[in-house]
Amino acid sequence: MDSEFNTAGKTDLGSSDLEARKKKFVQFLKNSQLWVLFILVVAILLGVYLRSLPMMDHSQGIPSFSRFLFTPGEAYGGKPGLWDITTDTWTLGPDLDPWLFLRSAKTIVEQGDLPEIDRMRFVPVGFDNSKESKLLPYLIVLTHKLFTGLGFNTSVEFAGVVFPVIMFALTIISFFLFVREVFIEPSKEEKLKANCIALIATFFMATIPVFLSRTVAGIPEKESAAFFFMFLTFYFFLKAWKSEKIHFNILFGALAGIATAFMALIWGGVLYVFIPMGISVLLAFVVNKVHRKEFMAYLMWVIFSFAITMYFSKRYDIEEMFTSLSSGIAFFTLFIIFVHAGLYKTKLSKIKYLHESKIPKTILSIIVGIVLILVLASVFLGPSIIIEKIKVIHQTIFKPVFGRWNITVAENKQPDFLEWSGSLGPHFRGIPLFFWMFFAGSIILFKKMTNHLNKKDSWTLTGAFVLFLVGMIFSRYSGDSIFNGENFISKAFYYLTALLFIGAIIYYYSQYYKKQDTSFEKIKFEYILVIALLVITVFTARGAVRLIMVLGPIAPIFAAFLLVETFSSYSHSKESKKMMLGILLIILLIASLYSFYVFYNSTKVQAFSYVPSSYNIQWQKAMDWVRTNTTEDAVFAHWWDYGYWMQSIGNRATVTDGGNAIVYWNYLTGRHVLTGDNEKDALEFLYNHNVTHFLIDSTDIGKYTAFSSIGSDLNYDRYSWIATFLLDEKQTQETRNQTIYAYTGGVSLDEDLVITQNGKEIFLPKGSAGVGAILIPQNQQGVFEQPYILAVYQGQQHKINLRYLRINGKLQDFKTGIEAAAFVFPRLDQQGQGVAKNDMGAAFFISPRLFRGFLSQVYIMDDPLNKYPHFTLAHSEDALIIDDLKARGMVLDDFVYYNGVYGPIKIWEVKYTGTEQIKQEYQDIDETKYLEWQL
After folding, report:
1. Which pLDDT band holds residue 418 (cuts at 50, 70, 90)?
2. What is the model's pLDDT at position 866?
3. CB neighbours (10 Å) of residue 203?
4. Are 591 and 38 in contact (CB under 8 A)?
5. CB neighbours of 664 closer than 8 A, spacing ≥ 6?
6. What percent of the chain has pLDDT over 90?
7. How do beta strands 83-84 and 89-90 pair?
């Protein structure tokens, strides 16, 4: 008995002691902020570790986080991944645009400022630097000066490499402060929740893979700095909104405006501030949450953001700032507030209708404001601008990317749900876990936002919000579903759910207004802002592949909220609900930990590999030749992709580049040179741009579809594609007199073909008919005979002879057959630790349309017909794998197939005939004078 009593006593004492420790721990979490600071520092270190992996030693495996923390000298020693083998110094990662910003930064260091006109770009007119976002290169210069000021002997290249890492560390801080400010409340328990939400969201944001590409070392992109200022804007504005003292409203509002202006001077994505801020304050105004102090905060934000942006950049003029669909929304909200003040704070308030109207005052002010704007816009800008803006809105919703140039840029492709939700994995049995966590979190937050309303009304509005999200997200589910984003059902579903949600808000607000119920005024502005931010980022994510990235740091806010809110509900729930909430909490914890684990490991591997590939090293070597063997005033033409590399690595001026400020010149380059069918037009165009050298890269083979589309006329006369066929030894036929090598593949015809067989003409239409195989006979003496293709149409095969065969470095002309060629080149296959070569392993089918073009004639086949004698090959830089195998004694041609086509970078010196003339058509920047279609 005594033993039992003592045991029970000890158990009670242990339980009591455990409860006391638990309470003490909870009190520590509520009262102390040191643990928050400690965990935030860990998040910053983790973010710096992941983002700086490309700078670390690449002679071994991926350095661990612990190695980064405790032996950083070893982690950053050895052979960095971001290294130029020709200059033996730091280099940027595998991207395009950052090279412009690095070159601009070097110019500032050397000359003290950027020139008014950049003569390295768009020769001969140059580029007006006042229209570029100039702040980014100045920030890189500031980073360079910071390191040199601290006594480090570093280059501008190093500053460009490390800049994204520094900015990401700052972004983590501004993101944490913003998220914490959204959820923070006066009570200790709410502060604890806000800290937890902010910290969890920060860890997710730091590791989510979709956010990596613009924030990793070696990629000093606009977004790497812009996101810091975006979250800083939101943080300062929330501080301004919440402050009770007018001078803090003004101060923090001004700071938010300055941060917004800095973002605008870096990245056009400032719309992610202007739109949600404008919409949020407008909604707050509607529900009577905008009073003197809120108005002063908003006014300061608008004034400072607009004024600084317009003063420092010609990219944003007055009309653009006040009428665009981004900053224009922010101005519209301010205008409505002024209209409201004019109606109800002046003598106009005595108008009888204003007193007797049953329409809420704020809604009436919006109606009056819209009428005034429509009148003013019609008078000063013309009535057509209203129709144009409506068309732009519709276009933005359903088909944001249009025109030949835009649709050929991969990152402009409009994704469907199945595509972009994959970036918000990880997937468990095909379910994107993190997507559904943030989706559920947004719904729970919306419900919490409307909890001050009648319970039924709150649930009804939440249901309307869910439908709105479903319509926006799933109306473009997949290309082969009923909701493909293009048909009537998809568009109707999208519009109806949006109208239903807006209508529900207006209806319920009107009902509460009539009852003089002020429940809507209790809705938190912070929640309105973060939900508006979510809506705009989801909207743009379904608009273009490159904008999925912006959703990356926003989604974690809602996933973190869901997790913490579920834990809070569990802690305060009745016993009857604890079991259900406990199971849900465990599921969410497992999903969160699994998501973080997958995110972390995926980001770690991706970041470590964000270094120059063999392709980039090939470019380093080619640019070394350019710097050494061409004059400083040389001008290069090529497809626009390589402009920044040529300007920044090769230090030579170009006709086009990735800024695409003159898209018309892309058309001219594609039409008259790359797909051009005669030397005269090519020379005349290049002469008008002072071109001394022309360059083609092996990836242009894969890009042929893009630049042939852009370079075509109204009827797509140049549109084509280059297909690779592989030798199929199983289908190779051995006969008594010959061997017939069979190359299998498949490609559609790029133009109609009429052939004669058995005295009958057979019509093979482009697009419908295709080539299924190339066959090349070889007789017993080893001589290759006329090749032919097997064309397939409506289930019938047709044997069609090709006039040309390019094999073993020589072009054979069989005089008959269609004006097309089979271009045979080696294939490499992995065998153990080495590779085996098959000299006849692969072949291009060069169709008649391709055969007429410059790229096929000159780049692939080395101008065998001598149609381009004034293009003299000056340099050919082999692909790294070809260069390496040649060094080991293997005999190879320019091209090989090794899980893909590898080829050289070729550079030709252009020599003119002396008969070329200056043509305004070739130097003009306005394509509408010459083209009948949307470029």
Report:
1. confident
2. 96
3. 22
4. no
5. 924, 925, 926, 927, 930, 931, 935
6. 76
7. antiparallel
**Neighbour count for residue 569 (Cβ, 10 Å):** 15
Per-residue CA distances from 58 to 77, 218, 309, 537, 612 (Å): 9, 15, 42, 36, 12
Q: How far is CA 772 from CA 481, 742, 744, 860, 907, in A?
A: 30, 10, 6, 22, 34
Pairing relation of β-strands 901-902 and 818-831?
Answer: unpaired
Query: Cα 510–514–515 angle (5° rounding)?
Result: 120
Q: b/e per residue, 744-764, with b = 16+ CB within 10 A?
A: ebebebbbebebeeeeeebeb
Q: What angle do CA 178, 330, 179 make, to 5 degrees?
A: 10
H-only helix segments in 409-547: 417-420, 433-449, 455-474, 488-514, 525-541
Mean pLDDT throughout 457-470? 97
Token pair belonging to 351: 């108008």
Domain ranges of the chain: 225-398, 418-593, 613-720+870-876+905-935, 723-846
Written as six digits, the tokens of 762 are 């057979």
Q: Element (H or E) spanning 297, and its range?
A: helix 292-312
Sign of the C-alpha dihedral computed for residues 493, 497, 502 and 503 taken in this order: positive
> Contact at 8 Å (CB) between 435 and 420?
no
Which pLDDT tens digit goes with each residue over 873-882?
999 999 999 9
Residue 451's Cα: distance from chain center in Å?
37
Which pLDDT score is estimated for 322? Answer: 85
Spatial contact of 163 and 217, defined as CB atoms under 8 Å apart:
no
Phi, psi of 756 (to 5 degrees): -115, 125
What's the pLDDT band for 7 if we cut at 50, 70, 90? very low
- 871: exposed, middle or buried (C-beta count within 10 Å: 0-12, 13-18, 19+)? buried
Which 8-state DSSP code applies to residue 784? B
Nearest-angstrom CA–CA distance, 353 and 290? 23
Q: Look at domain 613-720+870-876+905-935 and name its CATH class.
A: alpha beta
Q: What angle do CA 584, 425, 530 make, to 5 degrees?
A: 75
